[in-house]
Amino acid sequence: MSFKSLPIRYGAAIARLRTILGKKDDFKTVLLGAGLALIIRIFASAIGYASIILLARWMGPSDYGLYSFAIAWMTLLAYPATLGLPGAAVRFVGQYAAANDWQHVVGFMQASSWLAFGCGALITTLTIPAVLYFKPYLNPDYVAPTIVALAGIPFVALTIVRSEAIRGLGWIVLAWGPLQLGQPLLLLIMSATMVFCTMQLTAAAGVFASILAYATNLIAQWRVLHGRLGTRLEAERNVNLGPWLGVGLSFLWIYLASAILVQADVIVVGIFLKSQDVAIYSAAAATSRLVGFPLHAATALSAPKFAVLYAQHRQLDLQSLVTDVTRWTFWPSLAIAVIFVAFGTIVLRLFGPGFEQGYATLLILTLGQLVNAFAGPVTSLLNMTGHQIVTGRVLSMSAIFGVVFGLAFTRIWESVGTAIAFSGAMALWNAWLAIFVIRKLEIYPCLSPQWNRSSGSKS
Question: What pTM was computed for the model?
Fold first, then answer.
């Protein structure tokens, strides 16, 4: 490609964007909403990055590793407590709101909130005594922060369910703002206060500050939601636990497998290596996830659209939406990946001296995230079209793959082996689901709708 063709290509891209913004279609709605979600994620990433960098510096590598290990357990165990209701929330709340059925909307929100918090409290009451019972066999440094983290499971579970229910309403700022912006910001403020008052920040204190930030944001989010719903809260609530739990439980193993793929690698590193190694790996993993945030932003609003278009048998419109979401999110992801390849050591040094040792781990995990971006929103597409059982099976097999090979490879290549195993698991699940989408839904994530139409696909 010659340099002379670059202005032409750039002009064509601008013209395409103007065409999209100037017409009324599904992708315009998603693009505008995803732009807002992307702004939230950019600020959230900045605040979150600043918080973990400062936490790493205030705690030191050893305590930050203990903190990361405990937070990984808290997040991982919070997902079973949700009973899969976050997945059901996006589908049911979106459908109820579109039908102006606010009795079911409010009923779902209330019932799912109580279930998530109650199940989280049950898991807490079971796991804390278990940790205390096996305390003589555990690394003593991990015990205190892990017990504090287990106490926060109900708050994390409630946050996940409520945020997804609000996302089903299309209120992306209220859904994501408290979780992605408010929580890390409050954590940063509380941790800074502790450092100012005591001149130190332990892992257990950091975990406690994180839980307190979750609880504070839940209260603020509920007050805003209460104001938006207004008189609709006074209507009689309709609760259909059977269908909700039926769909939710089918999503449960999807969320659990996803949590394992995201959190278990930190736990595996913590089992075999030192807390300093956990800190370095955690920093590299958090950095690599920035590659995937353009896709997550677009998927936030495209998921309900997938369900609507599929239910209306609008095959070409669904193909067009999936193609546009994939293309307009892959290139920003690729740009972020290139930055990490070129300046990864500089980025990791922000966490403190010695963190640049995670550069190889960062590159491997970034590659896995790039495969995820290239495959597009295949996971969300299958979940929203009634194929969540297939998604659950694929993610479960991939999670098993990641854990088994992670345990084996970590012994051989330490944290680099962990990254290879879990990055490979991510590539496996995306390739597997992309093939299923093409064969069963006749949707091509990386091909244009015009090509699909000319090939003879049914509309």
Answer: 0.82
